[in-house]
Amino acid sequence: MGKNIVVAEKQVSTEVSPGPTPGGWQARILERGIERALRTQQPLIASRIAAIRRKRPDASPAEVIQSLGRSLKIAVSVTGGVGGAIAVVPAIGTVASLATASAEAIAALNASVLYALAVAEVHALPTETPERRRALVLSVITGESGQAALRKFTGKSGDWAADITNVLPLAKLGPLNITLTRWFLKRYVIRQSVLALGRALPLGIGLVVGAVGNLVIARAVIRAAERAFGPPPAQWPGSAPAAPAALEPQPAVES
């Protein structure tokens, strides 16, 4: 099953263009899900980062981003394992696991959107404009496909998040968002279909497939974010720069 997930990923990422937007109930649910996630997760990012910094007042931006990544991996692994755990129940488990696949996909999507927006907040990049927020998040959660689309619009292979939030004209974001939405739907429909079948396997196999499969997805999102945002800030905005180390007095040289 893990091999099937990797093959599906390669098939999507090596295509030149996303082609037509996928149809069917899965695509419709995911399209509504991304719209809702982009709208509902935005107000949560400041409080999420503040909660981490309250627990670790001395945490640097890089350490906060690492904490956000750990939270993402835990959230999606638990979400993926739930469907597999349901499949353990005799008789009704497999059917129930398939029935909850869409809800699990939306939960993992919400966690990924929150992560992308929170990393943007750590980098002090504005995400209030809906078009810019959508382009930024979709380009991160679509992985290699999003990177290819961004290269065409920014001419960069990395560190382009600031271009989306500050530089690219809104007129360019419309076509970009259409392309990214098609990539997102196609990628997610394939990926979640494979995972849904894997999670439905009985005897506890589905639990492992669901957890590991979603963990692979989370790691791909984290890698894409690292390429998009570049190195984290050395310090928090408004922080006083670190004082230079005092030079030790040199011993006098005897004449």
Rg calc: 21 Å
Structural domains: how many:
1
Provide the low-confidence segments as ranges. Answer: 1-16
Structural class: mainly alpha
Mean pLDDT: 76
Number of strands: 0
Number of helices: 11
- Give the topology string: H per helix, E per strand: HHHHHHHHHHH
Strand coverage percent = under 5%
Question: What is the approximate shape?
Answer: globular
Question: Helix coverage percent of residues?
Answer: over 70%
- Report the end-to-end length measured between terminal Cα atoms: 79 Å
The major beta sheet can be summarized as:
none
Structural description of this entry:
The chain is an all-alpha fold. It has one domain. The chain is built from 11 helices and no strands. α4 crosses α5. The longest helix has 30 residues. It starts with a helix and ends in a 26-residue tail after the last helix. 43% of the residues are buried. The N terminus is likely disordered.
Q: What's the structural blueprint in terms of helices and strands?
A:
Blueprint (H helix, E strand, L loop, with lengths): L1 H12 L10 H17 L4 H11 L5 H26 L6 H7 L1 H22 L7 H12 L2 H11 L6 H7 L2 H30 L5 H25 L26
Structure, briefly:
The protein is mainly α and about 260 residues long. The protein is about 70% helix and about 0% strand. The chain is built from eleven helices and no strands.
Keywords:
disordered N terminus, 11 helices, mainly alpha
